[in-house]
Amino acid sequence: MAVISAIPIVPYTVGANRIVRGMRIEHVCGDPTLSEEGDHALNMRIVQTALRALKTEVDAPTIFEPSETQAAEVAHVS
Questions:
Q1: Domains of the chain: which residue ranges?
Q2: What pLDDT digit, counting tens, does each position of 16-40 carry?
Q3: What CA–CA distance (Å, rounded) separates 45 from 49?
Q4: Eight-class DSSP state of 28
Q5: Staple partner for 3: which of 9, 10, 11, 64, CB 3.0–4.6 Å?
Q6: pLDDT digits (tens, 9 = 90+) for 34-73
Q7: Which distant-in-sequence residues (6+ apart) come within 8 Å of 46 by Cβ?
Q8: What kind and span of H or E run contains 49?
């Protein structure tokens, strides 16, 4: 399971192993201040990060950061 959250500590405290950092509480997979194209691109980047998180084997809670590139930074939470 992968959880997208603007506040990563919440899914961490309930035991999620794959946490994808979202943007805002009220608009977790995008940014309404961006153009329609920019918001869509951000949404796709977050969803692609979530899909990558599902394919990644983890042994501890891990935060996946949406990135412009395929090789996004992964942070292990402890």
A1: 2-76
A2: 999 999 999 999 999 999 999 999 9
A3: 6
A4: T
A5: 11
A6: 999 999 999 999 999 999 999 999 999 999 999 754 444 4
A7: 4, 20, 22, 23, 28, 29, 30, 66
A8: helix 36-55
